[in-house]
Amino acid sequence: MLSQIRGLTKITVRRFWGKYGAGYLFVLPTVVLYLIFMVYPFCYTFYLSFTDWNGASPIKNFVGLANYARFFRDRLVWISLQHNLIWMTAGTVVPITLGLFLAMLLWGRPKGFLTFRTVYFLPQVLGAGILGVMWRLIYQPRRGVLFQIGQVLGIEAFRYSPIAYAHTALPAVMVAAIWASTGFFFVIMLAGLQNVDMDLMDAAQVDGADAWQRFRNVVIPQLSHVITLVTALALIGGIKEFGLIWAVTQGGPGNATEMIATHAYTEFSRHSDVGYASALTMLIAAIAFVFTMIFILVREREMEV
Amino acid sequence: MNRFLLRALVVVVILVWVTACATPTPGVVEVTRIVEQKGETVVEQVVVTATPGVPEEKITLLVWDQFGGELESVATELIYANFMRKYPNIEIRREVVGRNDLLLTARTALASGTGPDVVYHDVSPTRELIDAGLILPLDEYADQYRWRERFYATGLSWTIENGKLWGLGLEAEFVGIFYNQSLFDKEGMEVPQTISEALAFCREAKARGYVPMAHSQSEGWQTFFSFTMPAHNYVGVEYIKDLLFGCKGRWDSPEIIEAMKITYEQMKEAGCFVEDLNALDFGGAIDLFNNEEAFMLPTGTWVVNSILELSKEREVKMMPWFDMETGQPRAYTMGMGSAWYVSANTKHPNEAALFLDYLFSDEAVKIWIEAASRIPPVPVDTTQLNLLPLQAFVLNTLEQAGTGQAEYALGWDVDLIVPEQFNTMLSDGWQAVWAGTKTVEEQMADLQQIWEEFGPCQ
């Protein structure tokens, strides 16, 4: 009996590897890299969030939930969360809407399609560091492009650098972020539009539906999976935003553009509080996970209905 | 074989052995020739003695420094090359690491055991590396190379922790106000010496289309000086000394609050700074000064290289912050930018110490001062140096500070002594005050609270 079971198991395993072995071998390098560069650092950061490590000492003292409890006493966490929420909202709705609008304009492959597609996508090719330097130069007092335009056109508001003031700094950086990210969403939306059933569009037109009705009742439903994807990506990007903010304002002026990620970075790099910085990054991960799951579940439920 | 030939052979063998094995031994080498008359034969022995720590095999020292600027990098390369020429068995492998990157990566690199043997690191953040056991104490080498006699005590004090010497500071510096005397003369204006004169000057200069003072706040660290200098001059050096080292006094005292109100309210109202102060970065401030759009530049002496070209064509001078009219003397605030440290994990501590010692030799100091505008805290024969007036002024002031003969009072760059959380509040808080989202009183209360929570007087 036992030998029969062993024999059957051997056959099953051989069949399994015969059928799926090649596939597993192909994904193995990626999985290994993922484990080394994503899973291990994540787990180690999670572990560090329960310590008081300063990044240099050979000793890491276990402090339990003290770093997490500190969130409630740290006013910068709440200020940063507000900014992240604003960024997630505006940074999701605006570039996706703009991306979809641009994709609709180029859907019919008009003249200059290739040129427009390249131009729209170009900012996405630049890294956050380059974008940050570029927009700092645009916003620079007395020298920047915005100031020069204000001088030439006589626009008084442009004489002032928007990143110098608490009430305009965040919107100013968001303008840069939206400009940079719209191209990405545009390309994805454009690809999604290629899968829209044109017969349905024609049928709707025959039935008397106007452009807005065709867009709302034919295009949007067929783009729902794409919209879900880009929205999830935008939400995750919004909660972990760091590069552009740090390059342009470093969270200033006076914490007016502080994000959870910049706060974590300051705790790590300036205060050498690696434990608390790790806890803050866990907060980022938790919020990103929760928001994304909620959104996906809501979307999936709507599509079932 | 007869005896003469045998003895001659012995001599030849000895000479060949000495030549092959002991030449040219780097470091301090003593050569002793012993001549003996043995009968009819004269035997000459050459005895070579190397001081301890001088390798006979070739070793490599990995050195991390921050000298990425054009002039200073060339100066550094020259010093390293001269060292390697003098000590051919020690190779210096240089890696230039930007300041921000170095502060982030040095701790992990030093802890890993594969990091630099010698690192040029900011003084204040090195304290945690010392506490973590990553830096080698240098007291033994201080005795060997007589550093305590050769350095000014004020210079060495910045790298002494818990009674031990941990590094050798290179950038003795002080903070004040650079001003373009030629521009003042051209506009027919007097250089303000008191705060009242400064406020009047600001109004007039702004009316003429200038930026009176090229202060910047975008990166945040510039607020250290707009805080430290007025505070020192308002309450006096002794008050600040008691605060920093004696646990007496408060940062939110009415006097310091008043000093800050003068800076962040009255000077703001008088138009002393650009309106978009929080968006102006340090490079932008230097540009304003170099392009003669601004009369004054409040910053430290490490910036001399950046305004050297202007100082060749114009008369550029330096003075302490304004007299705050409280009866306290005007003060320069002193500091030590960065220092050379040796990794506790280095496999070549003796060679690293030898390298450190060379960095402060007469020939190296000349290059540091003339080419890199770095002033080591050692006595210097200024007659041997080729300096511009501004460089000479900085050097003389530091010499006077080192010998206790300073013309002005001397205070401290507070940011080098306080906890980093205090510095973060200085950066963020003064930006908020300028932006109007925080009052001076709130900012000083926050600084006091952080001092009580993270400072040495808990």
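Residues 3-22 of chain B form the longest helix (20 residues).
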